[in-house]
Design goal:
The protein is α+β, with helices and mostly antiparallel strands. It has 25 helices and 24 strands. α1 runs antiparallel to α2 and α12 packs across α13. The structure holds adenosine monophosphate and zinc ion (ZN). Adenosine monophosphate (AMP) binds next to β3 and β8.
Length: 669
Amino acid sequence: MEIETIKKEIERLRTQLRRADYRYYIESDPEISDKEYDELMRRLQDLEKKCPQFIRPDSPTQRVSGGTLEGFPTVRHKVKMLSLDNTYSVEEIQEWENKIKKMLPKNALLDYCVELKVDGVSCSLIYENGTLTIAATRGDGQVGEDVTANIKTIKSVPLSLIAKTAPVALEVRGEIYMEKKELELINQMRVRSGEPAFANPRNATSGSLKLLDPALVAARNLKYFIHSFGWIQGTQFQNHTEFLAQAKALGLRTNPHNKHCKSLTEAIEYCLFWQNKRDTLGYEIDGMVIKVNDYRLRDTLGTTLKSPRWAIAYKFPAHQTTTQVKKVEFQVGRTGIITPVALLEPVECGGVTISHSTLHNFDEIERLDVRIGDTVLIERAGEVIPKIVKVITSKRKGNEKKIKVPDTCPECTEKILKEKEEEVYWYCINPDCPARLKQSLLHFASRGAMDIEGMGDSIVEELVTRRMVKGIVDIYALKKEKLLILPFFAEKKAGNLITAIEASKQRPLGRLLYGLGIRHIGEKTAMTLAQHYKTIDRLLHVSEQDLQNISEIGPVMAQSAVKFFASAHVREMIEELKAKGLTLTQESKPIKKSPITGKIFIFTGELTGFSRTTAQSMVEALGGKWVSAISKNIDFVVIGANPGSKYDKARALGLKIISEEEFKKLIKE
Ligand code: AMP
Ligand code: ZN
């Protein structure tokens, strides 16, 4: 094909794909089948591979562009991103209108736009000449984080606007959120791999946006509604309904339940309507937003430091219900902390089935005076995990049992202690407590840390009970033959786990630091430390003062990190990890650009030229990724002899299938 023809074809494919995205993700009314879509996408990918000079950041192929991020740069918002004032009753809404009426001319015609308050994370999108250039979080309102690469993976965020009517440049604002059923799935997965469940969709969304690997963000299936703008160049609007209609015409996703209300009475009625109906939505809303529609009136009203005067949030009351406490269990965490958990008679609360609730600590038990057998009032304020509000003492029969602090650790039967008398938490201080070890291993292997696929609850349980693993280092001494003696472990599963363990040695320092579970050092701080010091040896010698010179790190974190690295036990462990060949540095290896960069591979069947592990690490070395579960997102399915069921699934999905020979050619290119 001639170069000009290719260019035209590329443009044509992009237009078709954008239209398909719009119909599917914005209008929910697809025009073409998934198969047709995938074919168009593959043709476009092929052509762009042939002529990389035509790749543009807003091409539909660029949603996940491979590689991981090194943290997020900051973005200063040109127009401050404000918060909203809250009201909790109809009277308060009425008072708000009375107040603003006093600030407006007598004859002002007040009408409203009433919107759902989706429980997610606020985000700003800048489009220049129709193309998405920057996506940023709200941050403190003035300065947010640049999360463009992550936002681009969200299919309901168009990479380019339907250009004909697009303003020169504009910054729109909206809410990134996660649907209830998606959150449920992710929480199930997290619990299985030993990570804490997200308490609510907002935390899940903000946690997802902070992931440093856009491919992981893509898998979270986030969504986006736009509800406002920061600034617009080249166009003006009279009122909010007009803006929303125009935004929709530009291809931006607006909420179909936005409603123009001619009076406050109508607005209040609409708020109460959704208060009753909120469980019917696929996502959580924590209230409604009433906004003055007319932009001139908005200008007159202005804003306070914190929030606009022309809008108000009406917050719904929390979901509440009563149920019975059946039992209290004590869970031992990674640091030895003991958390009492109430097992409840399962009950439905705001569209979610509730069967347990954390009691946090023993002071909380005392404060509530909750006993086994008690009927309790529970509350779920947008949270998946509810809290116990109070005991319904009138329901007591007299046979309820008081909850006592256990004398010993429920897992290892060693003594438990409080660190200081005024502390509220009890700890198991036995460093060899199997419960602590299990939690540490699960944390070490979790996605954000060393990401050892297949090292979940049941396997860790076996490894610890059989004393095959007594500490983190032992993971790297596991042999396939040993794993085969575990129940349910066949050749393939054992092989996969060993491969995953092997691959985890390549994780950069930041992920390891996070995985080590240093007290007070979360994922983000671990990354900061790694980026600052680059190697673990430097970290072994830092002082509290050094650390506190880093703006993000406070005295508590600094003290905890220094104490950790000073421990002889920790130093010995680090030496052993070094000997096992772990990376322990942050410098990402320079990656040679190749046809593999950014592509996703899956292997099935026996390869002859090299082992699967080698093939997988070659893909990684060239900036590609490999996965072990089949999905639509895979670019290449490499088949060896006697391929498994993945081969049939790949064919059914119409994925690109290549032989070992073709794979060899690809890696040489
Ligand atoms: P709050 O976080 O309680 O101060 O509430 C303010 C936040 O509500 C904003 O920053 C938005 O992220 C969010 N929000 C959700 N839906 C809307 C909406 N329709 N209009 C404006 N803000 C909204
Ligand atoms: Zn213990």
